[in-house]
Amino acid sequence: MRPRIVFILTIALSLYNSAFGFAQSVKDSKGPPPPNDTRTPGLPIDDNITLLLIVGVLLGIYFLLKKYRSNDIPA
């Protein structure tokens, strides 16, 4: 079993190494483009976060109660 693990680890590390080698190759890149001056309006992702948390807690309580009630019923 150990030779197979060593073989798999060797192959994985060589692929990992070659992936990093290709990712760091320098071509004709001159860095990232300059930032855009036109700002888009932000998305309202924080508007209903408390409601989402409350719904998540209530759903968790529902599933816990459903699990414990199904275990208490004798067959």
Provide an overview of this structure.
With 75 residues, the protein is mainly alpha-helical. The protein is 61% helix and 0% strand. The chain has helices at residues 2-23, 49-72.
* Largest sheet data: none
H/E series, N to C? HH
From the N-terminal CA to the C-terminal CA, the straight-line distance is: 46 Å
Please report which band the strand proportion falls in: under 5%, 5-15%, 15-25%, 25-35%, 35-45% or over 45%. under 5%
Give me the oligomer status. Answer: single chain
From the alpha carbons, calculate the radius of gyration and give it in angstroms: 27 Å
Q: Helical residue percent?
A: 55-70%
Number of helices: 2
How many strand segments? 0
Shape label = flat
- Low-confidence runs of at least 5 consecutive residues: none
What is the arithmetic mean of pLDDT?
80
Tell me the structural class.
Answer: mainly alpha
In short, what is this structure?
This protein has two helices and no strands.
Keywords:
mainly alpha, 0% strand, flat
Could you give the topology of this structure?
Elements: H1 2-23, H2 49-72
